[in-house]
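Ticket opened by: R.M.
Priority: normal
Category: complex prediction / small molecule

The reporter submitted a protein together with 2-acetamido-2-deoxy-beta-D-glucopyranose and asked that the result be attached to this ticket for the collaborator who will pick it up next week. Submitted input follows.
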Amino acid sequence: MTEKDFSELMQVRRRQQKRSRSAIFTGEQFVLEETDWYLLNLFRLWWHYGMSFLLVPAFAGAMLLAGAQGNRWAVEGGNKLVCSGLLKLTKANIIHARVTAISLHSSEGKPLYQVHYENEDGPGSNFYDIVVIAAQLHDSKNNITFQNFDPPIAEFPGTFHTTVTSIVHGYLNSSYFGFPDPKLFPFASVLTTEAPGLFFNSMDNICPVNLSNTFKRKQPQEAAVWRVHSQHPLEKQELKMLFRSYYSVQVTEWQVCPDYGSVKNLPPIILHDSLFYLNTMEWAASSMEMSAVAARNVALLAYNRWNHDVEKIDQKDLMHKVKTEL
Ligand SMILES: *[C@@H]1O[C@H](CO)[C@@H](O)[C@H](O)[C@H]1NC(C)=O
Ligand SMILES: *[C@@H]1O[C@H](CO)[C@@H](O)[C@H](O)[C@H]1NC(C)=O
Ligand SMILES: *[C@@H]1O[C@H](CO)[C@@H](O)[C@H](O)[C@H]1NC(C)=O
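Result attached by the on-call engineer:
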């Protein structure tokens, strides 16, 4: 699907791009700046760290958390419009409620799942032939209990990697980064390496979700909105290191991805005949793209199982077929 098709289908518009430069900070200096001097930068990086630099997990982590750097594709009005657009396209009947339990019944030899939920109007439930769970069942995240299943569906072990996002409206302390004159600070996003004393993973200057043609990114000497990622909530004195002064701070603590070391095996995708668990994929690799692929595969799996098209599932010669078709 082209970007144009996608935009038309979802009725969204691509947000304007604002050029910005990134750099990697060690706590003392910048070791990599995004410039045209690519080779010089690689050389400096190698000089400081050797090639092992690219293997430093903190580096991978920082790149991961850099997330929404300016040059990524973004939707005007916010990327969440893609989710509401998708929901609208499915013409699904949405019940806004929190699922509390799923119990197994049967009807004419076929399983039937009763989904119990709770909302402002109190408890309720509905019966379904196929259920796909797209929420974490690990670490008491959603407290969904499974009733009448034999063998029982137990809670899955595993913990999550937490990160803290602080949205700060204020004046950057460019001195902290070695730029006494804020006007000369050239970066809109800063990643970090693992270094003692460094208390944040990345920070970037963020733009509103709606940009007009005349929008200009705030200059470093002006008050701007910065997004800071850290492992722990920032202490007041840490904020005062990064910012000369600030008007407001909004803090969100969230679980970025599974702690891959915390589980031995991937949880099952098929929990019961027609009861599927989508988030299993996150325990192999956590990204929006992977989740989208997993969702498509679970939909196909559910459809083929429902129609008893077993030869379409786990086709052993699939790779061979794909190759001969190519
Ligand atoms: C931002 O853009 C979206 C999508 O184009 C639009 O629906 C919304 O009203 C806009 N919001 C503002 C504050 O301009
Ligand atoms: C799930 O239950 C546990 C223990 O009762 C509780 O601590 C936790 O807050 C609950 N989680 C949610 C999302 O309700
Ligand atoms: C800014 O950074 C400098 C250099 O690290 C530091 O001495 C100073 O306390 C920081 N904060 C302010 C508000 O200037």
